[in-house]
Amino acid sequence: MLLLLCCGFGIFGYRVVFKDDAEDVAEKYLSAVQDRSLDDLRAVICASAQKRFDGGNELDDDESLVDWEITSSKERENSATVTAEFTGTDGGKVRTGNISMTLLKEDGDWKVCDVDETRD
User: Fold this and answer.
1) 87 in Cβ contact with 68 (< 8 Å)
2) CA angle 87, 82, 75 (to 5 degrees)
3) How far apart are CA 94 and CA 71, in angstroms?
4) Which CATH number is 55's domain given?
5) 66 falls within a domain
6) Residues whose CB falls within 8 Å of the CB of residue 114, separated by 6 or more in sequence, listed in order
7) Bridge partners of 87?
8) Of 78, 96, 98, 76, which is closest to residue 87 (Cα–Cα)?
9) Does any domain span residue 12?
10) How many domains does the chain contain in total?
11) pLDDT score, position 59
């Protein structure tokens, strides 16, 4: 009985400790955009957002994400909103603004499904 209890907690504990929360996934999303890594981006976006990158669509070469800071995060059972302030470039000009990411759980994992950007 004790062994079963320990093993059961071990599996549950592993999922709780090593499962990414919504903020971690938002960080991975922003890192993938910064690195222009479509493979990493596809790993953290929801199925409905995958269509945007079908056919090998690439990220805009004129824009780049330089830096960001997560400013708020609100997690509910199956949805979350993560907001970040960012600095980037667009056509060589420095720009700043806010990014609001909506995440949903798919098969128990957080995925970015919608991104709204507001530029200063």
Assistant:
1) yes
2) 165
3) 20
4) 3.10.450.50
5) yes
6) 49, 101, 102
7) 67, 96
8) 96
9) no
10) 1
11) 66
pLDDT in tens, the chain (120 residues): 444 444 444 444 444 456 899 999 999 999 999 999 989 999 999 998 888 777 665 666 678 999 999 999 999 999 999 999 999 998 889 999 999 999 999 999 999 999 999 998
The residue whose two tokens read 């596809």 is 42
Domain annotation covers residue 32:
yes
Backbone φ and ψ for 21, nearest 5 degrees, come out as -90, 175
Is 4 part of a structural domain of the chain? no
- Structure pTM? 0.80
**DSSP character for 95?**
E
Domain that holds residue 48: 21-119
Q: Are 33 and 58 in contact (CB under 8 A)?
A: no
